[in-house]
Amino acid sequence: MTEERPAIRARGDQTWQQRAACATATEVMRDPDLFFPSPVADDEHIRLAKGVCSSCAVRKTCLEAALECRDAVGIRGGLTESERRAVRQTFDLRCDPARVAAALAGRDVHLTRVEKQELIRWAVASNTSTLLLASVLKVSEAHAQKLLRQERRMGADGSANTSGTGQAAFEAAGA
User: Quick one: average pLDDT of 5-34?
Assistant: First the structure.
């Protein structure tokens, strides 16, 4: 049983852990440190931990949570620390319109830097209130005003925001 796509979780939501394979795996009962191998751990130890992850229904959610919080210790989502470092840049550059729409609708979700910029574009396009934007981004209202001004200026200059995909996705999301 594998998970197609991680659900959009509220920031800090850890309820998915109850469905994790590692929560009930007999391998973990025998070795509580299975997912935290020592620096000199043998390949068999790591292979065993990854084997538990491979059958996990929430493996992608686990990996996403580890990347969001920049967890640098242990095996999470089936990847070691060094493997997660290798995918972090791609993760940090993601821009999922569904996540942006959920945040703009008031859900407290983790957004990447790119998703935050897209959220600001959508806020300008939809005349979102400064107070709502400040709340979603967890910044002061004055800072949210500054972000909106900058985006309006960049949009008017035509030097940025040329894709138009943000507003189309915003409308398609029904936000």
Answer: 83
